Records
---
Amino acid sequence: MVEAMLSSMLTEILIPVAALVGIIFALVQWLVVSRVKMVPGSANGANNNNSSKNGYTEYLIEEEEGVNDNNVVNKCAEIQNAISEGATSFLFTEYQYMGIFMVCFAVIIFLFLGSVQKFSTKSQPCTYNKEVMCKPALANAIFSTVSFLLGSLTSVLSGYLGMKIATYANARTTLEARKGVGKAFITAFRSGAVMGFLLAANGLLVLYITINVFKVYYGDDWEGLFEAITGYGLGGSSMALFGRVGGGIYTKAADVGADLVGKVERNIPEDDPRNPAVIADNVGDNVGDIAGMGSDLFGSYAESSCAALVVASISSFGVNHEFTAMCYPLLISSMGIIVCLITTLFATDIFEIKAVKEIEPSLKKQLIISTVLMTIGIAVVSFVALPSSFTIFNFGEQKVVKNWELFFCVAVGLWAGLVIGFVTEYYTSNAYSPVQDVADSCRTGAATNVIFGLALGYKSVIIPIFAIAISIFVSFSLAAMYGIAVAALGMLSTIATGLAIDAYGPISDNAGGIAEMAGMSHRIRERTDALDAAGNTTAAIGKGSAIGSAALVSLALFGAFVSRAAITTVDVLTPKVFIGLIVGAMLPYWFSAMTMKSVGSAALKMVEEVRRQFSTIPGLMEGLAKPDYGNCVKISTDASLREMIPPGCLVMLTPLIVGTLFGVETLSGVLAGALVSGVQIAISASNTGGAWDNAKKYIEAGVSEHARSLGPKGSDPHKAAVIGDTVGDPLKDTSGPSLNILIKLMAVESLVFAPFFATHGGLLFKL
Amino acid sequence: MVEAMLSSMLTEILIPVAALVGIIFALVQWLVVSRVKMVPGSANGANNNNSSKNGYTEYLIEEEEGVNDNNVVNKCAEIQNAISEGATSFLFTEYQYMGIFMVCFAVIIFLFLGSVQKFSTKSQPCTYNKEVMCKPALANAIFSTVSFLLGSLTSVLSGYLGMKIATYANARTTLEARKGVGKAFITAFRSGAVMGFLLAANGLLVLYITINVFKVYYGDDWEGLFEAITGYGLGGSSMALFGRVGGGIYTKAADVGADLVGKVERNIPEDDPRNPAVIADNVGDNVGDIAGMGSDLFGSYAESSCAALVVASISSFGVNHEFTAMCYPLLISSMGIIVCLITTLFATDIFEIKAVKEIEPSLKKQLIISTVLMTIGIAVVSFVALPSSFTIFNFGEQKVVKNWELFFCVAVGLWAGLVIGFVTEYYTSNAYSPVQDVADSCRTGAATNVIFGLALGYKSVIIPIFAIAISIFVSFSLAAMYGIAVAALGMLSTIATGLAIDAYGPISDNAGGIAEMAGMSHRIRERTDALDAAGNTTAAIGKGSAIGSAALVSLALFGAFVSRAAITTVDVLTPKVFIGLIVGAMLPYWFSAMTMKSVGSAALKMVEEVRRQFSTIPGLMEGLAKPDYGNCVKISTDASLREMIPPGCLVMLTPLIVGTLFGVETLSGVLAGALVSGVQIAISASNTGGAWDNAKKYIEAGVSEHARSLGPKGSDPHKAAVIGDTVGDPLKDTSGPSLNILIKLMAVESLVFAPFFATHGGLLFKL
């Protein structure tokens, strides 16, 4: 075996440097965004306007100029404030619930893991190499608890920062839209980048620091060290669960409620300020699609890193204490930050958006550029950071692996992510026939629309599943479970760019809402709508990749769990495993039933409140009186917090109960079942929802002969399309994406508790 | 080991006797039904009427008496004729397609299995006991092909006979409805019983004869004998595939097409004779819900018997040539026929239905009585037909099993079926809160209705999956794969009663349609509607049990396949198996996408034709002109035959391709994945559909204060409910139930081709 080229010292420097570069880059972008002033008459406003009127950059379209300007800017600022306050207040209330959960669960972790060796403080022989002494289980309990808390806090911070920048940027995007679609695009995209880079860099930095601090205690016991680190992934994902589910219910209850009364019953446009639920709807975008998604992807990132690290710690990297090779996952992420930084410059500085039709290609170009660059990046990291040959733990044996094999593992994950993204785009963008067919089926009413939409979602799982299967096969064959974990990391390595694109969508959506509410002109609204439509498609792409990576992450965690629980085979032909498999495959249905029903009930409450306001507040429909926005915000908040608890419990308790009562074999079955079944529902649910949304937009936009034959707004086919869109809302924004977390979280929780289950689990069969 | 009490000779006699008793009973019931004359003015008609007017039995309600009577009877006969002709012509066309398939596939079976030993005619060492010589693989190829053809023909016959009796009984039920709901109920139920008993008895008899004839050649080589017999299951199930899919597409294309134009656009009632698609709709009930379902359940029955027999042949029963014990599965089925016969008498002779509200309890009582009696029956068979202790093949080892353990295996399956049935009823009957909640959600429109309905379907899988998991665990732990196979047989042992109840539904549905078309009075229609509503719920129960049994059957076949392919573990932790698992879990989605899209496209064609007729045939809406029913029948026929081919290919080719290219491990993964994922979609799809249907009926019937607040027909909530019902149609009658066959058929096909895959499979990995 040849040593890695990169020295340990250099590794110790490069990782934090990359993280800091990412953070600085994010702050610079924030600074640029902040130069759009929300105060009327400032340097960027009307004063400066005359001087540069001939340049495209500083030109305000005519009807927005003049006396009305101050008024509009003030109104935007006011609305932004309301959204920001609503979102902040929701998140803080949510964090109180999460805080209680965090403390309780920290205690559970400590007690369960501590009890493995009856809270003994003595060192004990290691699990994999009995000749060496490892730190006591009590230490593992304490450090796992600490890393769980760190992961939780980082996850919460990621979500919160994302929400802050999004609500900071939304009105700024609206104001920039007065100058042109390119300006607005850049503002929204930069803000997305702030979130993407902050999250990726923070996640890396905290993990890096934690490892280094823990090393002070653990010393050479890397097995124990990285076992304790898995708590970081659990913390990240469990916060994401509540963020995704709570945020998802919030946003869709408000959205569905606002649409059902506003669009369907009262026939007023979306985001009309007369609709009492409109602020809640906009708040929802920020707490669900921004904060929730941020926590989710942070969770995936943390988990795949932990899965890779824990497997590495019992492979030759860990056994021989090769620090650089051990840090391979972190180096991949570091490289990812740099690659994404370069990619972002292409969008913000190199190519300039001048027309609406350039937006979507520009975003897609981001994905392609980052993937191509990252492939080179992976090759570099693999050749400098890894010895040319090493061994990887493979369920009891050590398997010899070459560095180029690991390169293929990461690269196959990266490219599978791109394939999944583009397939998702094909099935959800209204530029292609699947969505157009769905739109066409609206001719015969809502029923055929729903049937075609469901069929589309089902069909859209085929290629992504093959892509995932191929990645699994390749990486599993080359480097066992470590291969899967780094494939997942590969898919997530361009997370900063992915998140920037993801966050761009809700920011544009909000910007449109603010334009409508501030009473800005039709042309502004058209520009923000164009931004939003592109965002819809890219959001679907983002969701597709998030689900794909969740599948790989979950499998990697499953592998790590199995290794740690000292299982060497999970045989479907044993009753214990098979019942786990079939019950596990049922859990996503149970979970989806809960979340969808929650959205439905919360939306019904919202509908009643909106109807009440419309009928009791005189002059509301005429625009003479203001609705009570606060009450709708409160309804969404209360409903989502109350409703997130049962699905949360289902996910958090299942591994504990199954592991304790039925033991590790059944739990393995449950994890495998939930994974293979959940990934299908997640993909089909989010694509079905995305397709309905864009089928509706296709009819509304009426760009082709065919689309015009279905429209205009208010026609029967359009009404049928609105029904499909409303059905799709909880599918694509609540139950679908939450399933990601279901499959990941159960796996990481099993991994953290593996020592307990291996020692004390399976009580029912011990009777 | 103690010998079984029942001698081989007695076994040889008892099985065919039970089958013949079943057939005779069915013929007697048919005779009773035929006494309802379709010729006006006969003994049973108006003449006889005066003499017994004081008795409830022969009393015709007033508006049906007198001069109009002849006219009505003639009209009913005419409509019945049209339906019967349409159904017969469809089935014959379908059989031509199936015939071609059957011949091609028979050739494939012969070539694949013959090639295992290069078409050698020499005897060879047995697979499990190398010291004994077994018949050559060529013999296996020939006999498998023959039993495949026999299974196919029996399946086709089952479907055809069911259709014949159903179309014979529908108008008779309508006519009897003039005398009272009890009379009509008995007629419909007796006709259902004809189908149930014919199918159960025929299936048993043909299987029994085949075994005995094959034994002449095979002699003591039971391993080879029962391997060849598995072709019977494959034949039964592959015909069922086309029957279910083709029939399912037919019935729902016609139904959705008829509803979308008739009910939604033209505002005419269901089954209105002015609707051109109305005959096609009624034909559809007979070819889809009767013939398709008949073939499906026959397939399940044949497969579970084959799975049990093939495992038994390599257990002590087969090795020691204990004929009685070997025939245990057939004896259970024989006992089932007798038990169901007694159960039927309760409905037809012991309790009499006098009021509408007694119908549903009476049907449910059938299920409970048959289950209780069958439990005793199983105990009797287990104690007289089995030695007190024996060994069962368990993936390479022999496991010692007691006869009472086998009793528990069968009984747990039987009772799990009942539990699944009642849970299904809870979620789909409008007497309970889940459906009422769905109906209530119609207040806010179709979108919330669809959301709540989907959530209900997802939720309804929880308990059935636990019931299946428990059955699997108990029977697997007690008697390995043989336990699972007999548990499936237990669930299917009361198949005659189950089928009678299932077939009763579409017959009543048709009877209502005929009453409407013949212009009979409102009161008659109310009676047939009441019959139909009860049938809807019991149909859902039947579907639930069919899915449950399919899950067990499929697992049993999977186990038999694994045994035959000489695999001892199916380890999820190997890449070959895992990719199989995840791709397998995707197949039900692919398949559902195909079938739902097919229904959608076929329905669109039907809508166009119905619209065309309404707009081009003058006087159609006024009832002055007759629509062109034949054209609609033709559209449904053509569409369903064309559309059944791609999903059919998916199911039939997947095991062949996977087995040949990727080998038996990956195929095992595919089977397990398809099973655990498919059963969930199947249950949720059929319950969602059933719930929407009954939510609509709940609003229409308006029996409670709450229901009335949502109605009446034509109100906004009712319109929303109709949309849900239409979406549910393909879910509950096409894609949901077809998934049963997907999971069973892939398993039985793998089992039949196992020797080929074991010898020549996995080409891709051999490169």
---
Amino acid sequence: MFSVTVRDHIMVAHSLSGETFGPAQRLHGATYVVDATFRRRYLGADGVVVDIGRAAEVLRAVLAELDYRNLDDEPAFAGMNTSTEALAKVIGDRLAERVRAGALGERTRALEALAITLHESHVAWAGYERAL
Amino acid sequence: MFSVTVRDHIMVAHSLSGETFGPAQRLHGATYVVDATFRRRYLGADGVVVDIGRAAEVLRAVLAELDYRNLDDEPAFAGMNTSTEALAKVIGDRLAERVRAGALGERTRALEALAITLHESHVAWAGYERAL
Amino acid sequence: MFSVTVRDHIMVAHSLSGETFGPAQRLHGATYVVDATFRRRYLGADGVVVDIGRAAEVLRAVLAELDYRNLDDEPAFAGMNTSTEALAKVIGDRLAERVRAGALGERTRALEALAITLHESHVAWAGYERAL
Amino acid sequence: MFSVTVRDHIMVAHSLSGETFGPAQRLHGATYVVDATFRRRYLGADGVVVDIGRAAEVLRAVLAELDYRNLDDEPAFAGMNTSTEALAKVIGDRLAERVRAGALGERTRALEALAITLHESHVAWAGYERAL
Amino acid sequence: MFSVTVRDHIMVAHSLSGETFGPAQRLHGATYVVDATFRRRYLGADGVVVDIGRAAEVLRAVLAELDYRNLDDEPAFAGMNTSTEALAKVIGDRLAERVRAGALGERTRALEALAITLHESHVAWAGYERAL
Amino acid sequence: MFSVTVRDHIMVAHSLSGETFGPAQRLHGATYVVDATFRRRYLGADGVVVDIGRAAEVLRAVLAELDYRNLDDEPAFAGMNTSTEALAKVIGDRLAERVRAGALGERTRALEALAITLHESHVAWAGYERAL
């Protein structure tokens, strides 16, 4: 099995609901360093999993919808806790949608899975993995 | 599949038995930077894999039993090589025991697996993964 | 010259005023991974620059006043841009004040300088250095 | 499941064929920081996955065949794109061959899988995983 | 003293002349992860050292002249060893020239120094620092 | 000013004397990831600060005297606390001695300073800098 990963980041504000979250119930923020991994069983004609330049562009396009925003004000997240793991799913699902729509070109048909990791600090990160 | 990882560290002395280990047969030491990853198929009501604050506390509690010690003097490790991979198992199993005993609360019933990585330097690390 | 550095982090929301900041004029957020470095010409009796445990506690105390907050709502920052470099100065000056007040004990008299680095992502960071 | 990883690196020149690669069609180069992970279900008598010193030596031997070279001039890569993911496979397969030939000793019989990661920069990396 | 650092990277081929360089006398390559640090005594009206977005753009512009190239073929480097430290100077001097030409705007008048670090692997890097 | 840095590591046991050190008064251990930086005002004929291969060898030679040892048993450290900052000085001074003795060759006459950083974990490190 092969994989290619590209890294980017977003800087967002949000608050989390529920006593579990302690001081994180207050409006605060995070830099999420985002790793997007594309998995594929065999390499294509060019010898690659995915065009890494296009992969980075598609990840940027997905992240641009979240970047420099207060997630508490985003209709898409109404009634939902934007925890690190939940955001990993949002990013993974939006990326999968673009991949299936052809954003990475013909060769994306062979992609099998997608994994997203969001690093919220040097001591904590969360991940989400799904089939494509 | 979702995951959440927290990072902490311990500083221990030990020696290793067997010609394989060369100079590491002498009493020496290591900083182990420890990553504990909790895996779960679906997010719970709060939108999280695990209460990350409690996860960090439980990891600290497990590590406190090893931290700033000479492992050669610990009865728990008598007759056993405390290699990086063996220590990863010790930490993973002790963490699993606490999780099953409810240290992470009700939501831990949905946790499926636990992965431990011990970084012993910038050029070597070992891991252990198990079901919960 | 000797130095000791401890690392911690904060997660804050804020917005920045001025066209320079582009999308960062919107309310957003950041994880700042904070490195505090203490400099000293000669080691003391114990052979250390500073009691590293106390240094970490004092840094935590300073960061706790900022952590999990919306800096736009903090009276201390009224009329000021909480840029990464400006925050580095706030943290450095507050830390210096505590050090001078004896928070690190007698040996802090020999400390000569303090440097603060705030990492806002894997591709950008800012620093502030001052005498003690 | 247990794993042990060792890290090394190579510095190579190469060019890539195909419009996909844009400016990377020109002769350029890369430092690949290479992580080799050995997986095994149970630890052996010494309590290890693999003799980590020998693992590092075998990885170095495989990498030495590529290091400080222009891959465009290597007969082994004629007619093949030496993309990061393709090189991960080359390194993984050559390492597997040496492991099967006994380079890691008797205990390698219990090794089940091998994973190679090539970091080409701080924002991109590729991997290849195979059974042993 | 304040500083702001931005990170980017280049991927180049080159060879080095002189027995000192051993196998690096052959045509090979490197990824250089490049950190550019801007230093300034006082913050300006916006509370920043430099417009970080423009700083990243100017760094990219300087790096684009080197990226994805064989430095042995560049007239600018004829008769010169493109060692990591020498490349740090080239990048620092070209960046300084653009800064002095106003690429970072009016506020660059207050910049005092520039430091460049080129990371060639996880175990080696080189730096160059100069006044502005 | 130019600099070149090489990284290596040691794994040692030790204990620290004095109430300041809390649990670190017990015999424990550490991995120290060691960065050695060589500074020089002008590059030499080959366009380098120092032969990086020889620099790495000399650093290894100095570290080999400490590696895989219990520092409490080393006569050289009798009556001295082997704190991270004190060890940075030991390594820096021993390295300086070898450099002055010609271990790095003729060009070392132009070296001006040496800086040593010892990373003891992902959240703490210490440094020592001296003239050559």
---
Amino acid sequence: MSAPRPTTYVVRPPRGTSKVAKQHLLVAAAALITELRQLLGAEQVLVDGDLSAWELDWRKRWRGKALAVARPGSTAEVAQVLQACARHGVSVVPQGGNTGLVGGGVPDDSGQQLLLSLSRLKRLRAIDPANLTMTVEAGMVLQAVQQAASDAGLLFPLSLAAEGSCSIGGNLATNAGGTQVLRYGNARELCLGLEVVTAQGEVWHGLSGLRKDNTGYDLRDLFIGSEGTLGVITAATLKLFPQPAVSLTAMASCASLADCVRLLSLAQSRLGAGLTGFEVMNTFSLALVQRHFPQLQQALPPAPWTVLLEFAEADDAQGARSRFEALLEAALNNEVISDAALAESLAQSATMWHLRESIPLAQSEEGLNVKHDISVPVSAIPDFCERTDAALRAAFPGIRLVNFGHLGDGNLHYNVQGPEGSDAGRFLAEHEAQINAIVYDAVQDCGGSFSAEHGVGTLKLHEMAQRKSPVALGLMRAIKLALDPQGLLNPGRVIV
Amino acid sequence: MSAPRPTTYVVRPPRGTSKVAKQHLLVAAAALITELRQLLGAEQVLVDGDLSAWELDWRKRWRGKALAVARPGSTAEVAQVLQACARHGVSVVPQGGNTGLVGGGVPDDSGQQLLLSLSRLKRLRAIDPANLTMTVEAGMVLQAVQQAASDAGLLFPLSLAAEGSCSIGGNLATNAGGTQVLRYGNARELCLGLEVVTAQGEVWHGLSGLRKDNTGYDLRDLFIGSEGTLGVITAATLKLFPQPAVSLTAMASCASLADCVRLLSLAQSRLGAGLTGFEVMNTFSLALVQRHFPQLQQALPPAPWTVLLEFAEADDAQGARSRFEALLEAALNNEVISDAALAESLAQSATMWHLRESIPLAQSEEGLNVKHDISVPVSAIPDFCERTDAALRAAFPGIRLVNFGHLGDGNLHYNVQGPEGSDAGRFLAEHEAQINAIVYDAVQDCGGSFSAEHGVGTLKLHEMAQRKSPVALGLMRAIKLALDPQGLLNPGRVIV
């Protein structure tokens, strides 16, 4: 069953640009391109031909038109590019691996924004095993970062679906999450220092490998998650960890989300920091996987909720297995779970993760759907889902909920598929706004977030304006204006 | 042996205030006090009598003179106080438990700054065991926070010498460190959300209990560590952890700092996140403890370096002990350590920690000294100490180095005591600046920080101006100006 392709939106430039201003921009743009060619060499300033690798996001939902694609090869060149842009008043859209999910890394369709690709900055600058740190350039692909750590016998734990093509700079610019957050934190918690080029084209050399540094304001965390609107990350010093000696995977069946939360508490108290993953999947999520990928063997019979647990230990593989088994036994005895399967091999473990990771793909196969990336306090999850499920089912009889995600972080991908057999595209076009309103109102009632790990980009600007407090927005606007007074860095993203 | 009292410095207001401006301030100040009395009640606006509990820091190194001490009882009252200050153009020095080490929480001696005490905001607002969070007000004493967590069967791991009187708001405003950072992070990493009153007297309700929230700029981490110069923290949502089932302590003897670093790597790879503490002490540190507190039993014979290790596990007390013993055995076999003692009881464990924690007190007994709170990458520590020790000994023959601290975080309290029998006060007065220059130059060469966990306050303004990059300072000044354009929040601290 093939799904219709999603509609691709054109990213519009800010409205109200006058004719004179447009003329001025054209002149500035031509001068900038000439200058960039001198700076970077003509072959690193792409203007003609098919630029869709940079202009179209990978979900194919946003397409823009860049003035040019500039590919500097060093931090110094990035600084020179930004100096030139500041001088000519041309705005800049930084881009890493172009795998973002919220339309934050493609230019608008004005043809007046410079697409700044960081892909040539991909060196491993240093690795320091005794300090458990490595320094990498922004364009390095996440998988290459993981591999470099692994080659040194260490672990860089950030892991997410796009790791084969996303860049570490993009991960930091969007504060990426993934499957190991429960133990190791988001991208933010994995970064000790940054090198950033400011809107004025100055370089902030903040590549500290320090775990403690209280010398002034936390610039690092301000740039992390700012989606290229405050500065351009060119390199980062990352935290590394010893590789665990053993990593065990299990699946368990729960009758309710409340039981999943109980299992989480039990696992946290018994396994401590050894609990590295805790993912939940509702019946329909796994049924979709079964439908579209029947070759994947289900580990357990269908249950209202299936939990995937991962337990990693630095040492003592046998002791770790006993502890993991004892946890599952205790959960069975307490009737927190009704069934469990512990992977007996790396292959079985991989299959369990494969089931979990196939849910988004199965959803794509099933057809267009409304995606959410929400978080609420873990304790509020059962109530949130019960209320929101009921509200959606009342408003849209037959609606199908694909609810799965990182329960340990309070982060659900609470996705919505139209009724079986309905026209998915039409359902989406007609009802997306109302579905979002129901879901995000409930999230807000629970003190949650409408963007847990994907960022704001273009997609969630409306929610930012509607749902963040005026005080928070005021503070953010003041910071944006202070660091980028010309408004040239990824304008129209995150806040407007 | 009783040490001479440290000199108390007067905190000077900014120079160049004109006579007319001073007159204006006097009028504004009188009007403000009248207004504050109406807002808070006269008994919460202290003007007369001995205000040294607020005006003199606990090290007795900085004394100021406050316009008044205001003690609001709620966030709404804090907001009203700041609104009034903004209207009257009067500056504000926020204060928690007044235990800071860098003179960041006492007013200058102009008599024109309002001392804003947060001590009446001390409610535990909520505790959510399933979400592993608690929400507390800024004035709550750290020990009370720890106790509230413990009463719920959970752990709040921030722990430091002043915990009996410091407040959680102050801990967050200064991003406090302490002894558990290796496992749990600094105060920053233990905080999920904040409530902050801005310079304009608006309330930012950012008390999120979320582990993932990518909706705009990271305001939380901007306020954390800003030492009251960007906003006033009135409440925080904190991370909690399951209490470990077992916590084991050991001491070990190393021949060199390089061996201490090797032991750290070995312990991290074998114990993973179970390694919760890793402190080092040089011979002279423990000799000072022996001299001034002879009743404290030393756990091991003197060695060039003594390491204190702590290992905590969520479960399986017997297995944990075996693993800890196996680590020490492996280290003995590899000749990374030459001796070890594993605490056999809680009392022995407490004695080991007591030895470590008595070093600063033994230093006070020994006499005035130059304190440093530095961090460098862990891998650079042996080289840093070797070079700096040699440089100091060459410049000041007979100088005594009290070197101890949190090696696992790269954070040393690299303190300097004058030669045996010298006049400590005179030595300090004559040589402190030169000693600082030698130490901080070496720190800078190693990519380190001159303030690891204590903050900048008044004490390290000079180092900020001299040693932070102009780009970093420019960014910080722009942020300060954006959030506090009148310059009323703790002016003259952190950056000038």
